[in-house]
Every structure is written in C-alpha cells, then in structure tokens.
Amino acid sequence: MPGPYGPGNASVYGALGGHVLGLTVRAERESEAAAVRAIEDAAFGEPLQGEIVDAIRGTDRWIARGSLVAEGAGHELVGHLLVSEGDLLADDGALVRRIWMVGPVAVSPGWQGRGVGGALMRAVIDLATTRDEPVLCLLGHADYYPRFGFEPARALGIAPPRPWPDANWLALRLPAWDATLTGTAYFPPAFPDSSGLAPG
Ligand SMILES: CC(C)(COP(=O)(O)OP(=O)(O)OC[C@H]1O[C@@H](n2cnc3c(N)ncnc32)[C@H](O)[C@@H]1OP(=O)(O)O)[C@@H](O)C(=O)NCCC(=O)NCCS
C-alpha cells in the first residue's frame, strides 16, 4: 500500500502525526533554498549543517524530492530534512551500492517538540520505501531515532566511517532490506571528512 508521501502529493500529517494539525510535509521547491538554510541555521545555532545541505545541491548525491520541508498551516516553513546518497563500500573499497543517508534534520526552535521532526521522519521513510531503498542510515540522537524503528547499524553489518557509538550510528531496515548489504557506509563528500554530523 502506498504511504502518505508520494510523488506530486503533499502530505497532511495532522491526523497521522497526532501532534501538529495542519502540518504539510512535501518536497522542497526551487525557490525555498534560502528558507531551508534559515531553518538549518536556527535549529543548529551554527552554519555547518546548512552549508552541507547547500554543498550537496546540484551534485549527484542529491536525491530527487529528497529535500523535505514541513509547512505550517500559515504556509511558513518550520522544518527540513535532507536525505542524500552515500556509499556502502566493501572491505576492499569496492562499491556495494549507494545507500540513503538521513540528515541533517532541523526543526525551527519555536516548533520543536510538537511532532514536526516525527512527520519529516515518517515522510522520508515512506519515500525510501516507495523507491525500494533497502535501508536508511544516520548519525543522531540516541533517544530520538529508535522510535521510528532505527537500530544500531553495526549489528546489521553496516559499519560507520568513524568509530561512532552504537547508540548514535543507526540504520532502519526497509521492506527491500537485503542482509547481504554489508560494509562501511560513507556520507556524501560534502560532509566534513565524509563523516557526517557530530553525535547528538
Ligand atoms: C531533534 C529534532 C529534529 C526533533 O524534532 P522535533 O520536532 O523537535 O521532535 P518531535 O516533536 O517529532 O518529537 C519530540 C520528541 O523528540 C525528543 N527530542 C527532541 N529533541 C531531542 C534531542 N536533541 N535528543 C533526544 N530527543 C529529542 C523529545 O524529547 C520528544 O520526546 P518524547 O516524545 O519522548 O517526549 C529537533 O528538535 C531539532 O531540530 N533539534 C535541533 C537540531 C538537531 O539536533 N537535529 C538532529 C540532529 S541528529
């Protein structure tokens, strides 16, 4: 069954998310790069994450409709999530396949804790499932992402590019998951040292 996020469709998560009535999650539009940057900068209180998003724009790591925004009832943008293509490499350095890396995820400070991040996460999970992606990987807050089904990636055979703790280096197996997909995952080159964000 198709999920609530689909090509060309905005998704209203008021009922599904249960927290934010009137919230819409959809793909970023061409004119919204500056608004997205403002959300990233405000959420993180530093420019690094927004710089990463802008550096990935226009590269082959950018996933069509993979830059998601959350729009409030007044059409203001209140959240952003980028998913981009990283590399899963075998021990000998050979490419196993490209895999989707989630992050950064950013919610405007005044909107945090109201389900916006959750709506963005459910949308990216739907998008990846629709595209038959096997797995999503991320480096993130240990207390936040397990609620969406993320689990320690090492236990699945996906090693991090740096020695990050199991609590922060996480993967979500999707319906197209294939247990032979093992190796070391690398974020796109736009991330510092291709490593990703500091653990939360
Ligand atoms: C982390 C973030 C994306 C979550 O989005 P959100 O819309 O605030 O979260 P939601 O409303 O969907 O979910 C709220 C839950 O997330 C938890 N949460 C929020 N920020 C958290 C954090 N930094 N660490 C752990 N849990 C966090 C809340 O405690 C709450 O938990 P509860 O449901 O058990 O009470 C958002 O708070 C944010 O942009 N933070 C600043 C930037 C950041 O840290 N990004 C993530 C990098 S991994």
Features:
globular, disordered C terminus, 20% helix, 10 strands, ten-stranded mixed β-sheet, binds coenzyme A, alpha+beta, Aminopeptidase, 200 residues
Please outline the helices and strands.
Layout: E1 11-12, H1 14-17, E2 24-27, H2 33-44, H3 48-56, E3 62-71, E4 77-89, E5 95-107, H4 116-130, E6 135-139, E7 151-152, E8 158-159, E9 169-173, E10 183-186
Parallel strand pairs: 5-6, 8-10
Antiparallel strand pairs: 1-2, 2-3, 3-4, 4-5, 4-10, 6-9, 7-9
The site of coenzyme A has 18 residues, from helix 2, strand 5 and helix 4.
Write a structural description:
With 200 residues, this protein is an alpha+beta fold. 20% of the residues lie in helices and 30% in strands. The protein has a single domain, classed as Aminopeptidase. The protein contains 4 helices and 10 strands; from the N terminus they run βαβααβββαβββββ. Strands 1, 2, 3, 4, 5, 6, 7, 8, 9 and 10 form a 10-stranded mixed β-sheet that branches. A hairpin with a 5-residue loop joins β3 (62-71) and β4. The longest helix is centred in the middle third of the chain and has 15 residues, at 116-130. Bound molecules: coenzyme A. The site of coenzyme A (COA) has 18 residues, from α2, β5 and α4.
